[in-house]
């Protein structure tokens, strides 16, 4: 009985008023971290040593932002120091902006002419909407063009052609070619424009089909070679052979002997969806002189590496950025 009485004392008393004990907890800071976006590529000798790795904006951009802000605000920016101007905007717009791009989208700075064009020149392209549900989605011709156009602008001696269907020499209506830049390729014109490196991406499908597989070609007039790359390591298509012969003959007229090579028989890609990334990687690495042609013949580049490079070549987009016009 003693045990029973003892237990009854521990029972919940319905008549007694209970209050929840308060705990002194540190409030959670819900402030979002400022996100550093990936900048459009720049040639090594064009980097601003002070602003490199600090901002995607140039000194000129920041001075323009300052002028626009001062013309529309009572709170003036007096400094001419680029980093101090940048810090002003970061602090002033911290409640509504969590990256640099937001400054051009949600503030008085949106008054800049062609702000969307400026965004595409300053920042790396933003990932397509399809990547949300399928991170390994096949790259479209638009995705490829966005990347390579930035390298064209950053490397004045480089020219990108494509992405072209494999039947680029075929004649369409009024006897025009499917891809005029390849059909009527003139190496002398590029030499006169001081173009020494040419990158081309092809699709193995013809122009009247949806697309099958991306392959690429790199022409280097400085190092005197042409290299054909296929992530599957398959034999060079006959259309590419015809084009290479055309380039070789034109080079000979300019007293340039080009060595032709490829990675036939050496497979890099074993999973679906990454051929476009392989083609981009091949061109960019040769352009930046990070890799040699022999590297692509002897060192396998894994599919997982190409998946990683999607986050290097592209910025992760939010819903608002999907509204940017291509």
UniProtKB/TrEMBL annotation:
A Pfam family matched in the record: Peptidase_C48
Spans annotated as Disordered: 1-27
Keywords in alphabetical order: Hydrolase, Protease
InterPro entries for this protein: Papain-like_cys_pep_sf, Peptidase_C48_C
Sequence ranges assigned to domain Ubiquitin-like protease family profile in this UniProt record: 116-286
Keyword Protease attributed: yes
Protein name, as recorded: Ubiquitin-like protease family profile domain-containing protein
